Amino acid sequence: MSIAAVKGAQPATPAHEGLVEATTVPQLFHILWQRRATGVLTLSDRDISRSAVIEQGRVQFASSTDRDDRFNHVLLLAGVISLNDLMRVLEAALASRDRLGEVMVRWNLISAADVEKWVKVQVRRILIQMFDTTVGRFSFEERPVEIDAYALNLNGDAMVLEGVRKVRSWARVYKEVGGLNTEYLTTREMPAITAGLPLAPEEWQLLHLCSESTSLGEMCEASSLLDLQVCKTVWAFLIVGALMKA
């Protein structure tokens, strides 16, 4: 399936596979949320793949083949565990075939609540990496999924907002929002779309400004958000259908 088909897909149209481009990933999460789809979304580039588990359009879990996305790497980066303790735990987990977190709790290195917290941090890191993916291929396999004990249960459009907020490429953002004179309006569907979204007061303010035709430059002037964050928020609102270009 071509990426053009994903860009124009309707809620009832499956997005099974295709090439990944600049806007592909956020659009896919939005489409799968609209369709209340269940299955596994996978992005692959060379020898690395990352997958998101989707249930009824909600993002539940994510996994990765990248060694830097592993749970032990997340803990070490955060200073949660020392390298010496980590090496001992890894050896014990390998020998017992228990999960790393189970061994750490058994050894009183961290609590069960901390395991849940850091697994969710790991999962969110993988998902954010997916939003930074602009090359390779995607596939979506519609099938029943098992829900992990540490499921995020995140609204697909909320995932779009979170992911786009952390996109690192200004070129991607600028291409979608246009210049400072580009004007925006809220859509008729905006109240229903945003009802379940975790929006900050500054993001609500941008929507309020766009109840009348408002330029990107005017939004940047009026908002306390950094200009780059304004642009990212506008892009996210375009994807989920809360804003449109006037």
Low-pLDDT ranges: 1-5, 8-14
What share of the residues lie within helices? 40-55%
Q: Rough shape?
A: elongated
User: What's the total number of strands?
Assistant: 8
Number of alpha- plus pi-helical segments: 12
Strand order of the largest sheet: 1-5-2-3-4
**Could you describe the largest sheet, including whether it forms a barrel?**
5 strands, antiparallel
What does this structure look like?
The chain is α+β, with helices and mostly antiparallel strands and 246 residues long. The protein folds into three domains: 3-66 and 130-164, no CATH class; 67-124; 169-245, no CATH class. It contains twelve helices and eight strands. The chain has helices at 3-7, 24-34, 71-78, 83-96, 100-106, 112-131, 156-165, 170-177, 190-194, 201-209, 216-222, 227-240; strands spanning 17-19, 39-45, 48-55, 58-64, 137-142, 183-186, 214-215, 243-245. The strands form two sheets. The chain has a five-stranded antiparallel β-sheet with strand order 1-5-2-3-4, covered by helices on one side. A three-stranded antiparallel β-sheet has the order 7-6-8. Mean pLDDT is 92; it is low at 1-5 and 8-14.
Topology:
Blueprint: H1 3-7, E1 17-19, H2 24-34, E2 39-45, E3 48-55, E4 58-64, H3 71-78, H4 83-96, H5 100-106, H6 112-131, E5 137-142, H7 156-165, H8 170-177, E6 183-186, H9 190-194, H10 201-209, E7 214-215, H11 216-222, H12 227-240, E8 243-245
Antiparallel strand pairs: 1-5, 2-3, 2-5, 3-4, 6-7, 6-8
A few lines on this structure:
The chain has 246 residues and is of the alpha+beta class.
